[in-house]
Amino acid sequence: MERNRVNNAERTGASIRFNDVGVTYPNGYTGLRDVNLSIEPGEMVAIVGLSGAGKSTLIRAINGLVPITDGQITVGDVELRGLSGRRLRQLRSEVGMVFQSFNLAKRTSVINNVLMGRLHHTAAWRTLLGAWSKDDVELAMQALERVEIVQKAYANASELSGGQQQRVAIARALAQKPRVILADEPTASLDPPTSHVVMRDLQQINAELGITVVVNLHFLDLARRYGQRLIGLRGGEVVYDGPGSEADESVFESIYGRSLTAEDVLDARPVVP
Amino acid sequence: MTSITADSPATRPRKPQTWPRTLVVAGIVVALTVWAGIAVKADLGDLIRNGQNAAGTLIQLVQPDYSFIVETLPAVLETVQMAVIGTAISITIALPVSFLASRATNPNGVVFGIVRFIMNVVRSIPDLLYAAIFVTVVGTGALSGIMALVMFNLGIMVKLISEALDGLDRGGQEAALASGATWFKANKAAMLSEVAPSYISQTIYVLELNIRASAVIGLVGAGGLGMLIDKVRTFYQYHYLSTVILEILVLVIALELLSSYARKKLVR
Lengths: 273, 268
Prior knowledge:
The complex is a heterodimer of chains A (273) and B (268). With 273 residues, chain A is α/β, with parallel strands linked by helices. In chain A, 33% of the residues lie in helices and 22% in strands. Chain A has two domains: 13-94 and 178-259, P-loop containing nucleotide triphosphate hydrolases (Rossmann fold); 104-177, no CATH class. Chain A has nine helices and ten strands. Chain A is globular. Chain B has helices spanning 19-39, 44-49, 51-61, 69-100, 109-124, 127-138, 142-166, 171-178, 183-217, 225-234, 238-266. In chain B, helix 8 packs across helix 9 and helix 10 (225-234) runs antiparallel to helix 11 (238-266). The longest helix of chain B is centred in the last third of the chain and has 35 residues, at 183-217. Chain B is extended and about 70 Å long.
């Protein structure tokens, strides 16, 4: 009966708009400066840049993990600035997040980790007793099926390999039935083949469910291959915004401040001819 | 044979001299000890002058009267019961309080500060004083002993568990919060399972502690073996006293074996 809840998204992805967004951290460090972006519903966007360029800040600003200090971010029709409490949690429940270090609770089962995506919709007493509703368990199982790891549902999260853990994290984000998925360097802790598996999962979710996907990537070849659109950040500012296929050597120089080396690509072969 | 050193090795550093600092620290420790000994008027002479009286006591002490064991059994049982009940009550209260007493799980600075302050007060009062207070409140016997143990345990448990929470990997919690969960839900879903091994391990530790403590708090009338110790000591029945001490020793060793076994099983 609930079979199609994950497979056919009830709503399509949400748009994300940045208007003159700035983030200054309490210690005075500028994370983002004058960022203007318009990400359409169902787009898959890759963000590239050096460490410290503001990739993480940009992604974390979208779900309010990092508060913005200037401008406005609009997700769907919700304005983010100044959002707190119940309304912030409401927004976050529609935005799934995948982290570099997987961020699973290691001493509990895979299914319990996926069910964390349902916490927003679960009553406090149910959470306390661990009495998940049947629908939520079904939803979590379907999410695990999508990332092809359902056979590990009752294994402990710590028993899984890195790639498997990241797929569980993707299933957890899916269980939210999100309109947006944010992925903060999802492949940085993985080896090259596993990186491709995880990126393909994200790509499929984007294509089949219409969920807007924003992903931070360190490696340029991954970004060009999986991001329909590529956004380059440098020093907290957007220095490139366009199709990945059009990002040539000069674009990379503007993002990285130097020409491309083997360290900037995941697979040890040149991406830029 | 080829040399393992590089062609042009860097000059090796000279081994740093640490003995002057060691000497100074040792000197300070000795000086402090001597000063403290003089200040409290500890006189080794007393030990020799009163040795005559001690001899009789010692001879009785090394001859425990095993027939006394039968009479002690109710007190032994009471001690174990007090320890178990005291542990059960205190760990139940300590778990939620610990989540309030850790910065990792409580974002509210005011509540955190108040809970920390109260727990510092609770922990600063020794178990014997709790026992004395509760004996005057509810009278002598096991109830006052249990109440004293609960207060004593709360201080320890909350300190240890909240510190364990502080040291946990908070990734799961971050993910839960990012999905729109409240702190309460995120802590339950992502932090409780992670702190469980420390919680179980500290519970066993506190149970062990309670067996020892219930012997002491009995001295002021809070039930268990301690009350028995107080009785036989008052009548100078040192051969009975040594029997009771041996029983406590056996209890503690048994519990230690049990706890190290349980810890191995539980905390992998």
